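Appendix B. One record, verbatim.
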Amino acid sequence: MTPAVPHLWQRLTWRSKSMALVVFLIAMIYLLIAAFLYTSVRADLTSQVQAEIRHLTDSIATSAANPLLLKDAGHLAQLAQSDNSLVSSVLIVDQSGTVVASSDLAQVGTRIPAEAVEILPKKYTYSAAIIAGNQRLGTVWLRSNAAEINHLIAKKLEHTTSRLLFLGISTAIIGLIGAYLVSLAITRPVSRLMHEMEAIERQLGIRDDPRTEEEDEYRDELHHLELAFRSLGTRLREHLLELRKLNQRQQAMQCMVTIGQMSSQVAHEIRNALSSVRGAARYLVRYDDRDNREEFLQIIEEEVQRLYDMTQGFLDFGRSYDAHFETQELCAFLQRCIQRHRTDFDAHAIAVTLDCTASLPVRFDASLLAQAMSNLLLNACDAVPAQDGTIHVSAHATGDGVEIRVKDNGTGVPEAQWGEIFKPYVTNKTKGSGLGLAVVAKIMMAHEGAVELSQTQGQGACFVLHLPHLTKNRAGIIHEG
């Protein structure tokens, strides 16, 4: 194959290639069938001619028995002069080896030596014994006319050849139509995908002109599609790298904004607490009022405790959570969480119920999840009414993990805070750091889960913890952003 042939093949379109392959396949199948039919018909015709000559030889041997016994030379000569065009010559030999009749009169009367009998089968194609009763009288040797036989077979094969030619032309026409339809069915999705890829490339600015220098070497749509996917993959990697950098810068800016908001809130809370402490201290220094001393000392103690709680909450929120997962029964764990705050519930006459499946093994960090549950239970304890307060805790398995719900019958979360309730220092309580729910969200991140607020205005609050199915080797470490 010359170098120009593969180059030309490369420049063909995918539709042309598919048509060529289908036509080639049909042509090969047709050639195999035609060759098989031609050889089969030729073999059948040859077998028929051979059977006819063999039958003629047997017929001459049968007819020569009586004339040979009667030594009727005339009758034997007539048998040797066969008018069948398929027979070249006939030789009749008696038992002693003497030629008694032959199509060649010069051979009549000659004696064939015993050693020459072995040569006769090579010169004469067919032979038959002349038998009368149980006695062999001689042999008939017959030589076929190979040229006439071949001419007869070729003449009879002409009809078969014409039929095969007609079949070949019909197959070629049908094959071209079928190849076009098959190639159309195969290449249409590829062409459609190619056009879509070109449109995407132009939209993304990957390619301005319809063809590049590398694509000019090929006209195959699959090569174009491969190059398009390669270019698109390169550009997507570049975009992903840019997005990753932008995301890092955005996270850094968001972190700075969060730090600024937290610093402002912390400074505000510290200033309020210090103002109360300073006012109470000045009063105690200027006035020797024994009646109000205990009240102002209590104010100082409460504000110092509030500063301590706020600082502790800030430290809890800012520290990294190194989660160590263990498989535990979730129902027993929730029961212990409720029992830990039983004193707070009894002091406010709050009814707490637990609804949980009997056997619910889950992998989680007990200390972190206990802190999240404590924050939710204490928030619910502060939110329920003074009389008839209820908190309902439930847990059940879902398709992708486990859900824990903590629902109360308090006033609920104001609708304006629904989207910001899990941000630091967002609270609707008069006293509190505003970090409880933010810590819960961070703990759930350490468990690769989530927390959400599910409530209807005025019907209390329901916080849902989503714990995914965790494998034994997974552990989460969440650091400050």
